[in-house]
Specification:
34% of the residues lie in helices and 18% in strands. It has helices at residues 3-7, 50-67, 81-95, 110-115, 154-170, 192-205, 232-238, and strands at residues 21-22, 29-30, 38-43, 71-77, 103-105, 129-134, 140-146, 184-185, 208-210, 213-216.
Length: 239
């Protein structure tokens, strides 16, 4: 059996995210404590590196927008907690930006292996840039993987959460290049009678191309600019 397949986890969309407990820059945390909120768990290759530094700054600047989607950020690398703290302090000293979310110190790579964050063909020690979007029930809803030299697009990660939450709320799908508050795709008809009714509706309302592709307005406009919401963990730290 391939060593990487044997050692790395095989986390898939639709499964419950593997539980963990770890030391972080905000103390001991566990995934279970975030139940009831959405989570973006992301890995970075190493502290005091250029691309990762730009990402930490970008995630920190966008943190409020994630919180407005009832979403908490959690970073992770195999560096020590002392290294994380020193790096976070250096970023603060140079930019005035405080990192408002925990960064996990996964020194032995146990969590990284569990989530399949290490690609042995790239590095046997550093994590690549994984993003796991986990919903408020603990289910993995979306997975993104970036190479070591490519920084993540934070607005796209926000858009993915908005799309996931909108599709769930309004019972539909989002089309290509969808952005918040735009129409979503209606579920396909399941009987011939429903097919005929759908085509009649399209002819009347001009809201689609054919019975298998029609649109409706979402029940609710879910966007990062909607309402304020803070992560419980951040509230506790601030107090």
């Amino acid at each position: 059996m391939d060593y990487e397949i044997m050692m790395n986890g095989n986390v898939k969309i639709g499964m419950y995210a593997p539980e963990f407990e770890a030391d972080s820059t905000m103390g001991k945390i566990s995934l279970n404590q975030y139940r009831g909120k959405w989570v973006v768990l992301f890995s970075h290759p190493g502290d005091f590196t250029p691309v990762c530094t730009t990402e930490m700054i970008a995630f920190s600047k966008a943190n409020t927008y994630f919180e407005r989607l009832n979403t908490c950020l959690i970073g992770l690398s195999v560096d020590s907690n002392a290294s994380h703290l020193a790096w976070a302090y250096d970023i603060y000293c140079k930019t005035g930006i405080k990192i408002p979310f925990p960064i996990i110190a996964d020194r032995n790579g146990a969590i990284a292996r569990k989530y399949g964050m290490i690609s042995n063909d790239v590095s046997t020690t550093e994590t690549v840039r994984n993003v796991f979007i986990i919903d408020d029930k603990g289910v993995v809803r979306l997975i993104l993987v970036y190479p070591l030299n490519i920084g993540r697009c934070i607005p796209e990660i926000l858009r993915c959460i908005e799309a996931l939450q909108t599709s769930e709320e309004s019972k539909g799908s989002t089309p290509a290049n969808w952005v918040p508050c735009e129409p979503i795709i209606v579920g396909p008809p399941k009987t011939f009678a429903e097919l005929e009714a759908r085509n009649a509706e399209i002819n009347k309302n001009r809201n689609g191309m054919s019975w298998y592709l029609s649109f409706k307005e979402p029940k609710k406009c879910i966007t990062a600019g909607q309402t304020d919401c803070e992560c419980d963990r951040i509230k506790k730290i601030d107090k």
